[in-house]
Design a protein that fits this description.
The protein has 14 helices and 5 strands. The chain is α/β, with parallel strands linked by helices. The protein is globular. 32% of the residues are buried.
Length: 311
């Protein structure tokens, strides 16, 4: 059985296993789904099988193409198009595009020519968490394989096997939102629990509605600049938990279950409409920061916008 070491993704594993058994490998795939759920891992494992190589990076027939700065540029596609003309040492030559959604339009149009008439030995795998950023003409020439969040129990079980305490593993698995990569990163983070306690204080400050105190939140968040997406995700999780409590959802759905008393107290200070608007504000801030908007300005705007919702 292929891909036994990869967690979750039963559909993707079965689909690719059947393709391998029937020798019906496509010249182009798109692995699409959330970050950290095994897309790159599966791309590499498929490449190992096809190239019959344990260490892919020793093979000239395996090439990973990653963003150069903020994007995958046309020059990188041109280089790949030159390289692809050189025949492989064995049966295949494989190109894996990490964060393919970051290809510029020029790069995508250039790649399209290769996807239309690839050499018989070439396999191109586009790995993306947002296929909508890619041209329809690109998508139409790929077999799209959908990746889904990994079940929470599978993540927790894996963490326990690596030596993480059972209760901590359960908490981290819930925070991961189905991303094994994120769960592992959090399990190795010394700052995670300190950060979580501080975020709880930020939530309380927001809901008390004092502008001077709220503006101080920016200074507190700044020290977590390198982990800002995790910080904002943790913040969102608290607000979502407050919604769950307000709707009397079963406690098993609450991520911060060990903070239930705090969450219930906060739920009395805010409406559904306010919660929804705040979550949207934080999500918008995440998108801005991922697009390399100015950190301080983005956080300042976020805190002011949340204050406007609460006041």
């Amino acid at each position: 059985m292929y891909f036994e070491n990869i967690k979750g993704q039963q559909f993707a594993k079965k689909y690719l296993s059947n393709s391998l058994k029937s020798n019906m490998i496509s010249h182009a795939y798109m692995f699409e789904g959330p970050s950290g759920v095994g897309k790159n891992t599966l791309a590499r494992e498929l490449s190992r099988i096809l190239l019959e190589m344990e260490n892919l990076f020793n093979s000239p027939d395996y090439i990973e193409i990653k963003p150069d700065g903020n994007s995958i540029k046309i020059a990188q596609i041109r280089k790949m198009q030159t390289d692809i003309l050189v025949k492989p040492y064995k049966s295949y030559k494989i190109y894996v595009f990490d964060e393919a959604q970051k290809m510029t339009i020029e790069a995508q149009n250039a790649l399209l020519k290769t996807l239309e008439e690839p050499p018989k030995y070439a396999i191109i795998i586009l790995v993306t968490n947002n296929k909508e950023s890619l041209l329809d003409t690109i998508k139409s020439r790929c077999e799209i394989i959908k990746f889904t969040p990994i079940p929470i129990k599978e993540i927790a079980d894996y963490l326990v096997k690596t030596g993480v305490d059972e209760k901590r593993a359960s908490l981290l698995a819930n925070f991961s939102r189905g991303s094994m990569q994120k769960a592992i990163e959090l399990s190795e983070s010394e700052d995670f629990y300190i950060m979580r306690e501080e975020i709880q204080k930020y939530i309380e400050t927001f809901l008390n509605g004092d502008l001077i105190d709220i503006m101080e939140i920016q200074n507190g968040i700044e020290k977590y600049k390198d982990q800002i997406i995790n910080v904002l995700d943790l913040m969102i999780n608290y607000f979502r938990d407050i919604i769950m409590v307000k709707e009397n959802i079963d406690n098993s759905m609450i991520i911060n279950l060990d903070k239930l008393v705090f969450i219930k107290n906060m739920s009395k200070k805010i409406t559904y409409s306010q919660l929804s608007k705040i979550i949207d504000i934080i999500e918008e801030t995440k998108n801005k920061l991922r697009s390399n908007c100015n950190f301080n300005i983005s956080i300042q705007v976020m805190t002011l916008n949340i204050y406007e919702v609460i006041k």
